[in-house]
Amino acid sequence: MAKITVPGSKSITNRALILAALAEGEVTLTGALWSEDTQIMVECLQKLGFEIRVENDPEEFCNRTITVKGLGGKIPKGGTAEKPLELFVGNAGTAARFLAAFVCLGNGVYRLSGVPRMHERPQAALFGALRELGYRVESEQGNDKLPARIFGNAECGMRNAKCKVSIEESSQFASALLLCAKVGGWRVKVVGENAEESPYVVMTAKLMEVFPFKGGRFQIEPDASSGSYFWASSFLMRTIAHTGNNWEASFFPLIRISSWPKKVDKFSIWQIDMYFPTFFPMPERISRKTDLGDSVMTAIVLAPFNRKIVKFTDLERLRLQECDRVMALRTELNKCGAEVLEHGDTLTVFPSRLLHGAEIETYNDHRMAMCFAVLGLKVPGIKIRNPACVKKTFPNFFQKLADKPPRGLGATILDARTGRKLAHDELFAE
Predict the structure, then answer these.
(1) C or N: which end of the chain has fewer Cβ atoms within 10 Å?
(2) How many Å from the N-terminal Cα to the C-terminal Cα in the chain?
(3) Are strands 109-113 and 63-69 parallel, antiparallel or unpaired?
(4) pLDDT class of 157 with cuts at 50, 70, 90
(5) CB 68, CB 50: distance < 8 Å
């Protein structure tokens, strides 16, 4: 049996970093993810003048213990209109959205920019809400996207200002405002379908309820979305061996995801993707809004091995993330011989166990690389282009696949060009 330690949750880590900076004292985050997205957040907070100490985690190579000296809502540094303080957010949606609200609490001018794809991703609903609160936000291209200049004004929040924000395009808009609302003196109304039940907005609210704002320690739990790849691996390894009524109960014990905090029912219930194992065998319909978060991509890649047709609905937000994930999943699964139909924001996947290998375009999307790498455990000949893009959230993902049990799955990973077996150190994404 493999017992996999999954790195910390990106979603929780980047929320916790903002809250730690807002705290009235020193906060130590244990089990924090150390990947491209979280490093970007740490670097931006350091540029804003926060004292942050980063130490290795003896339990997981891609985790860190991060200590932040909170300043009770004060932001030490800021630029001027002529020379704004530059914050580069890469393609990290959480950093782009959370920092846009956060810097409003400062007294300077800040310029947020990222990679070209981040400049295409939506920001309008958040920028509109910040303007409602009285802040000045200027999009350089006039399209309410990055790059943008934000004029902080710590006094704006003293007016008990109100704003309304839609989460139709991203729940991160609401989370960005809620994280800073108490310090800013903001009253935030979240609108959009199932606004009060949006899983990631609920995560933000629950996190704020238990966070040590007066200083202390806070444990970041492992990332359930990342855990889905190993649950999926368990499913693929057992689909042939198990049939009939014992199938659902039998395949998941093959791989155990370790290091979740021992809370109620083992999980904090903050991460919607912790429910991933309950969707096997798959039902006829799975919704991105109400059933699964990012792990819906993992489910889509597994769906050809389901016994019945599965419709994946409410996928519109997948089009606005690291790439158009709806198009990407359909295109790459079709390459492998799967029958996948795209209708609006729904993907219909038909049973098809006779898949074949193909060269997979990842679109520089970490989740595309990891989903199809898992498929490669079952389907010979899967070749992943730009596998290093997993550094965004899971730099040692391929090492976990290749390490011998119980710490890994024992998979053999080859260089697609030469056929040479890759060494352990070569599998780390930098």
Answers:
(1) C
(2) 29
(3) unpaired
(4) low
(5) yes
CB count within 10 Å of CB 130 equals 27
Query: How far apart are alpha carbons 311 and 286 in whole angstroms?
Result: 6
117 Cβ contact partners less than 8 Å away, ≥ 6 residues apart: 91, 322, 323, 364
Looking at 291, 294, 365, 403, which residue is catalytic? 294
Chain-wide mean pLDDT for the chain?
A: 90
In the block, which residue shows the tokens 């693929």? Answer: 236
Inter-residue contact 4 to 400 (CB < 8 Å) = yes
Predicted local confidence at residue 158, as pLDDT: 54
Distance CA 429, CA 35 (A): 10
* 244, pLDDT greater than 60: no
Residue pLDDT, tens place only, 271-291: 999 999 999 889 999 999 899
> Alpha carbon of 341 to those of 148, 334, 338, 347: distances in Å?
38, 9, 10, 6
Decide if 37 is catalytic.
no
Q: Residue 294 in contact with residue 225, Cβ under 8 Å?
A: yes
**Residue with structure tokens 């077996």?**
421
